[in-house]
């Protein structure tokens, strides 16, 4: 450089151009790395997107990935664009950045020259490929920004999957051109000077321009001071204002929304555990932790700290027990619900409870359902007050046998377990096979329609004990009917 006169050194890129280019490059690189784990792309059955899922954990989890892909990328690319518009406004020479038909011909001629030794086209300030990349990048980044921010802010004027598809297409096009730009800048020897100019000092020699961009000098008409030029000078205010407004929204402390409060079981019984479910949604734009507090009748009961990604909804649950019958107010972060606590029915016989627990390990509490003054069946709850099944215990008197049938029915009215026993251990039954799993297991998985003796139904009677078998079948059908009709 020192050997050349100052007159021989020309500023090819201003500091604003170079910073803007670097921020764009960084923004696109971070966007690609943080966007790839979310890529939904299957090519000829090969899940390409699936190869990149590991990146999320590698960079510190989904929360970090989103901060990178949304805040950092939008900030970098938005600022790069603002600086670019400012530099454009300050530029004294015309930019000739419009991609013309002549540029397309030059582009083809340029690579024919490069790879097939054809004659070299006489280029202006920009290589035609750069102009093409400029416009493709501008359109793709605009599309990526628009669709990305709409998805991020959940402003769904356009269906989410369509936004995502547009985002994916823009990502693929931009990535292909950026990769090409990158490779060509590495493999084409004369590009080294251009790279140094773009990344280090912005300057090239007049000789280099004459050799590679001879038409630059005739292109370089100085733009005279005009109203248009003055307007151009202030254009950058638009993206700057847009970006500031956007970030003033996006940087707000995330808020949450409390959804419906659900109480299980719906009929809360005095002294019995019940569960309060509450939906919490992070309505903000980034991951955050929220404190969710439960109050009953104004008394603080419990608190949950929950960290939610932006837009994420989680169902929290609190366990509680109330001994006083009557109305009570449940309140969760300002949202309240009135519940009625009713008298708990008489407790189940210990022996029957043991039988149910033997057949269903998670059975914890049993509420008898009384019909016509008699226990028709039991509602079975887990230790959280969740209804998990129905149970019945019936005595079956057949001419030759006295038996008991204990059964568990799932919430879809399908038989889950059956246990047939002698009414008393020391009594005789006609055919002991009626007490064995071979007969009992025929009932598993059946619905009421199928609980009939074969050939009509799916139950084969125990040979020599058909009446007892049919009595048992009828008993189970009756209970299934009652559960289905009243639950
Ligand atoms: C300019 C601001 C951008 C914003 C606000 C943004 C936002 C988003 C959002 C919200 C998603 C949906 C997945 C998720 O929840 O993270 C997404 C997906 C994605 N983004 Fe961006 N993005 C931006 C720019 C970019 C850029 C510049 C690229 C790459 C050049 C990119 C590449 C991707 C990819 C590959 C996906 C997955 C698409 C799919 O296959 O579904 N994004 N982006």
What is the CATH homology-level superfamily of the largest domain? Transmembrane di-heme cytochromes, Chain C
Distance between the termini: 91 Å
Strand content: 15-25%
Amount of helix: 40-55%
Using the coordinates above, name the CATH class of the largest domain: Mainly Alpha
Q: Structural class, from secondary structure content?
A: alpha+beta
The beta-strand count equals: 17
CATH architecture of the largest domain: Up-down Bundle
Q: What's the Cα radius of gyration? A: 38 Å
Principal-axes shape call: elongated
Please state the average pLDDT score: 90
Topology, please?
Layout: E1 9-11, H1 15-35, E2 42-43, E3 46-47, H2 54-58, H3 62-90, H4 101-116, H5 128-152, H6 160-187, H7 191-201, E4 203-205, H8 206-212, H9 216-219, H10 227-234, H11 237-250, E5 256-264, E6 268-269, E7 273-282, E8 288-296, E9 299-308, E10 313-321, E11 326-332, E12 335-342, H12 350-359, E13 365-371, E14 374-381, E15 387-397, E16 402-409, E17 415-422, H13 437-440, H14 466-486
Parallel strand pairs: 6-12
Antiparallel strand pairs: 1-4, 2-3, 5-7, 7-10, 8-9, 8-11, 11-12, 13-14, 14-15, 15-16, 16-17
Helix pairs in contact: 1-3, 3-10, 3-11, 5-6, 6-7
Structure commentary:
There is one protein chain. This protein is α+β, with helices and mostly antiparallel strands and 487 residues long. It folds into three domains: 245 residues, Fumarate Reductase Cytochrome B subunit; 93 residues, Immunoglobulin-like (Sandwich), CATH 2.60.40.10; 141 residues, no CATH class. It has 14 helices and 17 strands. The strands form five sheets. Strands 6-12-11-8-9 form a five-stranded mixed β-sheet, with no helix packed on it. Bound molecules: protoporphyrin IX containing FE (HEM). The site of protoporphyrin IX containing FE (HEM) has 28 residues, from helix 1, helix 3, helix 5 and helix 6.
């Amino acid at each position: 450089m020192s050997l050349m006169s100052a007159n021989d050194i020309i500023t090819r890129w201003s500091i604003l151009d170079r910073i803007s280019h670097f921020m764009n490059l960084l923004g696109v690189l971070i966007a690609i790395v943080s966007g790839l784990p979310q890529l939904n792309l299957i090519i000829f059955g090969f899940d390409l997107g699936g190869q990149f899922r590991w990146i999320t954990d590698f960079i510190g989890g989904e929360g970090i990935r989103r901060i990178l892909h949304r805040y950092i990328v939008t900030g970098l690319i938005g600022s790069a664009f603002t600086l670019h518009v400012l530099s454009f406004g300050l530029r004294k020479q015309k930019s000739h950045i419009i991609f013309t038909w002549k540029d397309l011909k030059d582009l083809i001629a340029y690579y024919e020259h490069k790879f097939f030794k054809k004659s070299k086209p006489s280029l202006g300030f920009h290589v035609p490929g750069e102009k093409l990349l400029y416009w493709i990048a501008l359109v793709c980044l605009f599309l990526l920004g628009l669709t990305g921010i709409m998805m991020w802010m959940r402003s769904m004027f356009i269906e989410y999957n369509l936004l995502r598809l547009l985002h994916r297409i823009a990502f693929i096009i931009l990535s292909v051109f950026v990769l090409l730009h990158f490779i060509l800048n590495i493999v084409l020897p004369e590009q080294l000077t251009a790279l140094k100019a773009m990344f280090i000092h912005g300057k090239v020699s007049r000789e280099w321009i004459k050799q590679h961009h001879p038409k630059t000098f005739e292109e370089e008409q100085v733009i005279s001071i005009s109203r248009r030029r003055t307007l151009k000078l202030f254009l950058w205010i638009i993206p700057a204002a847009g970006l500031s407004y956007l970030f003033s929204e996006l940087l707000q402390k995330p808020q949450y929304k409390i959804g419906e409060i659900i109480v299980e079981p719906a009929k809360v019984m005095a002294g019995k555990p019940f569960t309060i479910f509450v939906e919490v949604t992070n309505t903000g734009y980034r991951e955050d932790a929220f404190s969710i507090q439960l109050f009953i009748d104004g008394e603080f009961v419990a608190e949950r700290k929950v960290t939610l990604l932006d837009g994420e909804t989680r169902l929290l649950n609190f366990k509680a027990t109330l001994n006083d019958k009557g109305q009570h107010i449940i309140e969760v972060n300002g949202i309240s619900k009135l519940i009625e606590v009713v008298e708990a029915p008489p407790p189940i016989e210990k022996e029957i409870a043991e039988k149910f627990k033997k057949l269903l390990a998670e059975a914890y509490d049993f509420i008898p359902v009384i019909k016509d003054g008699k226990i028709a069946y039991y509602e079975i709850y887990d230790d959280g007050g969740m209804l998990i099944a129905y149970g019945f215990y019936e005595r079956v008197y057949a001419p030759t046998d006295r038996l008991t049938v204990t059964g568990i029915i799932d919430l879809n009215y399908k038989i889950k377990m059956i246990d047939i026993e002698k009414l008393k251990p020391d009594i005789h039954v006609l055919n002991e096979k009626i007490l064995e799993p071979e007969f009992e297991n025929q009932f598993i998985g059946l619905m009421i329609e199928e609980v009939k003796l074969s050939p009509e139904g799916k139950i084969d009677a125990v040979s020599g004990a058909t009446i007892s078998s049919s009595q048992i079948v009828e008993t189970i059908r009756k209970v299934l009917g009652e559960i289905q009709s009243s639950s």
